Amino acid sequence: MKPVRDKYSAVWVSHSSMGDFLKCPRAYYLHNVYKDPKTRRKINITTPALALGVAVHEVVEGLADFPAEKRASMATETALIERLGIAWKKVSGKKGGFRTPEQEAEMRTRAEAMLRRVAGHAEPLLLKTVKLPNGNSDMPPNFYINDEDNIILCGKVDWLIYRPEDNTLHILDFKTGKNEESGESLQLPIYQLLLANLQKRKVNGASYWYIDRDDTPIEVDLPSVEESYKRVIVVARQVAAARAKAALEGPDAAFICPRVLDGSGSDCFACRPFERILRGEAEYIGVGEYNQDLFMLPE
Q1: SS3 at position 259
Q2: pTM above threshold 0.85
Q3: CA dist., res. 193 & res. 237, Å (int)
Q4: Are strands 218-220 and 151-154 parallel, antiparallel or unpaired?
Q5: How large is the average pLDDT for residues 102-109?
Q6: How far is 132 from 218, CA to CA, in rounded Å?
Q7: Among 31, 43, 197, 249, which has the minimal tally of Cβ within 10 Å of its Cβ?
Q8: C-alpha dihedral over 226, 228, 233, 234, to 10 degrees?
Q9: Relative orientation angle of helices 225-249 and 15-23, to the nearest 10 degrees
Q10: C-alpha to C-alpha distance for 77 and 117, rounded to whole angstroms
Q11: pLDDT of 201-224, one tens digit each?
């Protein structure tokens, strides 16, 4: 008998949630599962780097809302920085984890420099582009990666360049951080699977654009659909198994920090910030964009 699909009981996995799990199952639980007993909302941490990334991505990705023939006028330095002013209001002050006006001004200056680089080398963004459709109720694009385990993979691709001459797509992912994406990252495999299952065009390649430093995107190897599935399903099943164990034995038995398991006694960079929220050491900022309780950690 074919398993019954139920999106309400399914385990949803994404690049960010599986990344949390691989770093520390306890961090995964506190970031993606745990809800404050008083508010019934999940918890999250705001930081200046995150705020910068959110604002810059909103501005650059927003160019896809304009037809290709009109996009050049919206990709100028003046237009991009003007739109940054609108996006920045959402992350200004403590909402963006900024402790001082000087810190915020420094990060905004850095964001403006990124957008100037984009404006000066906007050729990839002036080509035709397409978007994956959102799921029901405006959920991110998603599909059942595995029926038997009741697992749904979801994610959002930054930018898809459409090449009408051969009806293919090229993945373009914007990076605002200073670190390069690891070759072990599941991001491209997830993108590959989303595109293979949610649309019909062939994907002919992928690039990262480190807009804090590089004038042009850097092409990277794109794994096959088969290899992508093998890599993603292994981690997705680990997440599903942990959640099933937590339902039977409780989260403390299923989501254990690896530094507890190895007896090292060292502090965990992944779960420590969330543990500080539970201990009352973080400042409550308010309800974030995704209906999460947002906190800022002290220095």
Answers
A1: helix
A2: yes
A3: 16
A4: unpaired
A5: 97
A6: 22
A7: 249
A8: 100
A9: 60
A10: 8
A11: 999 999 999 999 999 999 999 999
